[in-house]
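User: My instructor asked us to take a sequence, write out its structure as tokens, and then describe one feature of it. I'm not sure where to start. Here is the sequence I was given:
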Amino acid sequence: MTTQTTFVTTMNALREFHKASCDHTPGARRQALVKPVYPTVSALTSLTPEETAAVEGLKEDSQRNGAVNTNEIQNQITADTERLKESGGGDAASEEFRKRMEEKRAAQKESSNKMIDDMFDKAIDIGEKYPATQGAILSVSDQIMAFFSKLYNEIYFWVSNIVEQFVEWVKNALENIKDTARRIVDWISNWFK
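Assistant: Let's start with the prediction itself. The structure tokens for your sequence are:
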């Protein structure tokens, strides 16, 4: 196997590992994930300024994509919340809100997979164009994937908490409404006694 082929094969194995590690679908982790062990593709060598810029560009693209993704989902959740507030609540509106939040979680997984694919495609292109960068790319890809994994997990659990807190709030609000109404009815019925 050539160094080039080893690099591409290793990067694709890492891509699948990192995509699977971001999957919170029930049953997705039926077997333990084992990170691929990759051979030394090329020793970390002194890189030219152009090669260094290409590798650093991977990190910068990852941060930019993560920030854009987070802002997009925040805007979507804010819009959904505003729609719920404007609707005045109710069972149908609450169920629609919950459905939208579940859709956000699913869309976030797809978005995460796309960001991972884009990053690995770009990393492979750089490694093929500048073979001396392959060792550095393997090293930095772990950092980038840790970033994407953490980002995905943060957003996934953020949306999950919104759904859970919303359901709990609705449940408590309904109980509070019923209790308050009962107290008022009791108070009214006892007013003239």
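For the description part of your assignment, you could build on this observation: The chain has one domain: 3-25+49-165. Try explaining in your own words what that tells you about the chain.
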